[in-house]
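pasting input
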Amino acid sequence: MRRLAALCLALLPSLVSAGVDEAVTDVILPAHARFASETADLAAAAEADCTPEALKGPWNDAFDAWLGVAHLRLGPIEEEGRGLAISFWPDARGMMPRSLAGMIAEEDAIVDRPDEFGQVSVAARGLFALEQLLYEPDFSGYASGSYTCRLATAIAADLARMAGEIEAGWTDGFAAALTDPGGSPYLTDREALQALYTALATGLEYNQDQRLGRPLGTLDRPRPTRAEAWRSERSVRNVVLSLTALEDLAEALANTPIPETTDAFGGAIARAEALDDPALAGVEDPAGRFRIEALQTDLGALRRTLDTELGTALGVSAGFNSMDGD
Amino acid sequence: MTTRRTFMASLLAAAAAPKLTWAEAGSPAYLGAAREADGGFALFGLSAEGADLFRVPLPGRGHAAAAHPVRPEAVAFARRPGTFALVIDCARGRLAARLDAPEGRHFYGHGAFLHGGEVLATTENHIESGEGRIGFWAASEGYARIGEVASGGIGPHEVRTMPDDRTLAVANGGILTRPETGRDKLNIPQMAPNLAYAGEGGVQETVSLDPDLHLDSIRHLAVSAEGRVAFAMQWQGEAMDGVPLLGLHLRGEAPQLLEAGFAEQVAMEGYAGSVAISGDRVAITSPRGGRVHVFGLDGALAGILRRSDVCGIAPAAGGFVASDGLGGLLSLDAAAAVRPLAHAARSWDNHLVALG
């Protein structure tokens, strides 16, 4: 075992840089290009027809694309609060419906000034603001030409702007900061690898603790309306697409077969697809709850498998201070 | 009969035979504890430019170190809830004394020197009542226990010396823990943190925030030469609440809270790990959010640095030095612009301690 570890360490430099290059070039950059393209399509669709029936399709496509990048909380997405503005969730205090209702009541004219819309509160922007307008009965009865329709158009344009800025940030420098480190924010190849591995591990934890854990709540108090995107019944789809993207990232980072991790991803994705409970409403009945908890358990096992098979081989682990504060 | 006290005194007398100063330990600017590449732990003395000046192995992961103001001695605390602390002779690279928490007490992981280094103050839990205590130890008597006072709250964490060298600022975090349940937090709904000022006679003043912020655990402190106290907090609610994590206080005045805008507050994940004051700037770190926020003492945001697992921070000429779990030591200017100082195959632990 010790000799094996020593061998892995000796192989480390080539393994490390190759995996980061593959992850950036083959997985991360295409995923950002897709998110930029789908949000641009959404914005164009809204310009043509901003009613809910016209926007639901392009909005779902944009949300699908978001799940390819949502876990990559590094670089341009971390600037100017973009990540939070795109995905304002969880909203435990109900800030989003209040913010949207306030803008609609006041008919805030900022919707007609696209250059300024980025100054609007993050609680009235992004994918979840559009979900409210398109799916929440308090908002979704709006007609073409109404203020709410203009608000939906402005939110779609703002999403496309942010997605375009994030993609540009990656292609104009951040991708190179990872693949050819040596300054800020990554001093070494190892730090770049660590950053991507942390995004991978944190993304898995997010599915387990947030996307599944929040609606599960406690046995005495399940919380189905705490599921992510329950109004649009995307909660399970989000988990499946997120796991698919995380698997792509893991395989690219490994740059060598990781059969146990591949199996674990496959098992978890199959179990999620078999739930037949798109909004995770089953947290409220015993059988449904049991199956959702089994998926959550799968994700915990998947994290340990990943840590053993990939993290150990790469010589990286989750954060020393971030995981054990005081 | 050799009592524990006389034994400790003789041990220290042997260690301190010729009077040594920090110059004999290479005049470090900072102390930092780290996990090394082989999995072991050590305390390092560092120059202002981040170079290693000395290395002393530690028996396990430590928490903060308190540096004696004159003698080259560092007090390294076991991690919470530890019952011992080690006084390390940094010039000779060996153990000089060991502090054991009195029966029914444990340490919370921080300490500070008073009276020119004559007295060490430590934050402690009186386990039976759950009330915080400040313990006092006589440095020149082999760190004999000489007394204690109430800390003015539950769960005192960091303690710092005020400029008068007589008074302590104490961060009463408000969170009740018990040794048998480890770090489980037992009183979140009722927690009531405060910033207290205490001397050897006890607590003189306590400062609390608005009741809406009673879940904001006041845990780490920095003190300016003028006696302005910066307090860093850890929010026990949802990260998405985006609450303030840094405050400033001057005795006799109302506390002032500092924020970097809602999205940045959310990005800190409700967690500030360390705080430092340098000139007219104050900085907090969040290893969870991978960020350093630098503010002016007037409350205005001066700059943001994004850096994974960053936690230790200490004042430097013109700004700060930060340390992280990836082995980096970074120089930050007054606007958080970064310059790498050093990089080693080790993980720097939560705090970086400035000397002098």
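fyi The first helix of chain A runs from residue 2 to 48.
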